[in-house]
Amino acid sequence: MTLTLAFTKGVGKHDRLDMRRADGGEERIDCPKQGIIPHDMVHYAVENVLAARGFLGRVAAGEDAAFTMQAEAESDGVERLVEVVQGDAWSGGESTPDAMIDLYRITCEARACPALPLDAATIGAIRAEMRTLGEAWSATPIGGTLTLRFG
User: Fold this and answer.
1) pLDDT band at 67 (very low <50, low <70, confident <90, very high)
2) Could you give the angle at the alpha carbon of 112 between the alpha carbons of 49 and 121, nearest 5°?
3) What is the count of structural domains for the chain?
4) What is the rounded CA–CA span in Å between residue 52 and residue 114?
5) What is the pLDDT of residues 98-137, one digit of tens each?
6) Which of 25, 126, 143, 150 could covalently link to 21 via disulfide, CB atoms 3.0 to 4.6 Å apart?
7) CA 79 to CA 21: how far, in whole Å?
8) What's the rounded mean pLDDT across residues 28-37?
9) What residues are paired with 7 via a beta bridge?
10) At CB < 8 A and 24+ separation, what contacts does 20-24 make?
11) Phi, psi for residue 37 in degrees, rounded to 5
């Protein structure tokens, strides 16, 4: 269950993500620019560190890359964490790990999804992955592609 992710930095308001499954299936998503790495690259950081099944894991397993996937406990928990990590990155990455974990739990409770187990070391590992991806994305020129392998 592998997925090749090719993020292409766009000129205008969008970047692009081309995904290729091990079985040859392909998906394409336009990614609105957000001032940090693309949203689905945040998914890569979170899912890669946690080895959890989220959006990318589901696409790798053959699901369509749709904005409205059926609810699934683990991937819903991953999505809530992606939101928290992305929000932290937008605000400069200064939140304490405990504050991020608290916000994650509150977000999961509000959306009635089970929270994944997290600790400060896991938040640190996700942040390290985000920094690495951010540096690689910053070094990618307009029109250039950053390719990652998931799974």
Assistant:
1) low
2) 25
3) 1
4) 13
5) 999 999 999 999 999 999 999 999 999 999 999 999 999 9
6) 25
7) 21
8) 91
9) 17, 146
10) 21/59, 21/60, 21/62, 22/60, 22/151, 23/62
11) -65, 160
Average pLDDT in the chain = 93
Q: How far apart are CA 108 and CA 118, in angstroms?
A: 13
Q: Which residue has the tokens 């269950």?
A: 1
pTM exceeding the 0.85 threshold for the entire prediction: yes
Could you tell me how far CA 77 lies from the centroid of its own chain?
12
Helix spans in the chain (H): 39-50, 55-60, 73-90, 97-110, 120-139
The dihedral built from the CA positions of residue 95, 77, 74 and 145, taken in this order, carries a sign that is negative
Distance, C-alpha 80 to centroid of its chain:
10
Q: Which two tokens stand for residue 68?
A: 């409205």
Q: What mean pLDDT comes out for the span 43-56?
A: 94
For 115, the domain range is: 3-150
